[in-house]
Amino acid sequence: MTALPGPIEEVRDLTPAQLQALLPSWTTPKVIRGLVADWPLVQAARRSPADAVAHLKHFDHGTMPVTATTAPPEAHGRIFYNADMSGFNFRREQIPLKVVLDTLLKYQGQPAPPTIYVASTTLDSFLPGFRQDNPLALGMDDPLASIWVGNRSRIAAHQDVPDNLACVAAGRRRVTLFPPEQIGNLYIGPLDFNPAGQAVSLVDFAAPDLERFPRFADAWARAQVAELGPGDALFIPSLWWHHMEGLDDFNVLVNYWWRAVPGWMDTPMNALMLAILALRDLPPAERAHWQAMFDHYVFEAGVQTSGHIPDAARGVLGPLDATAASNVRSVLRRRLDR
């Protein structure tokens, strides 16, 4: 590949008030240097991994095990499928967090340790008090805050429906991003059988096989890359593809997910799965008719869709609220249970 990825746009010296004002308007990725540099965890990690571990243990109540993903040294940190995609190259087990942390310290400095990766663990459930000690006000109601802990790892490019603010608290991370429209060039794997709940790119970014995946060269030309250190943060908009690499022997990331939509709205992924079931394999002419229907009722909906219908008679074509959404779900359940 001759093209080189471009940098992710960077901003610096944001105050909490500025962050809260800017976040709702951002639709492209941003690296925010030093956003959480004052966190006690970041300060501890800059002293040593052992100090960072001590800080995390302070909040660990020890009553619930975390889910730890482990892969053998020959995986080289890549959390992925096995060779024939009949399964995965890792296993998961329930382990006390303090055991995971001590094991990570034990493997410090070893040239070929097993990969150890604790992903998406809810902060308030597993480390109560952490957010009070390491605060970040985003100006929105109840974002989902999670912590990710591990050693060197490579997480295949995937996308999330919510917006995401990822804060590096220990170690270094390399992040590679792609716009949502690059989906066709990333060679995405199965929707319903994948390493962690989201479909992933099948391309090994460390050694792209362009004979098997030739369009990846086009995606690479649109990629954006940044290396983040302790205290830095990254805003990843909804549906942007992101490939995440933990570069050090000890890495901690804290992220916040949120959707700027009412809570009664459903996830669009449910609509995608239902569309695959109901539309994808229709005859081409019929599928084209349904494409026009979706444009009319969904993607280009406006006054031409329902302006000619009295307000009280519009039903699901009128403004949606929690009550209307509940009615739609009831209709869907009845239809799907036939």
TrEMBL record:
Record-linked Gene3D superfamilies: Cupin
PROSITE patterns associated with the record: JMJC
InterPro entries: Cupin_8, JmjC_dom
Top-rank taxon: Bacteria
Chain segments annotated as transmembrane: none
SUPFAM superfamilies, per database record: Clavaminate synthase-like
Pfam families found in the cross-reference section: Cupin_8
Occurrences of domain JmjC (ranges): 116-273
Protein name: Cupin-like domain-containing protein
Protein species of origin: Stenotrophomonas oahuensis
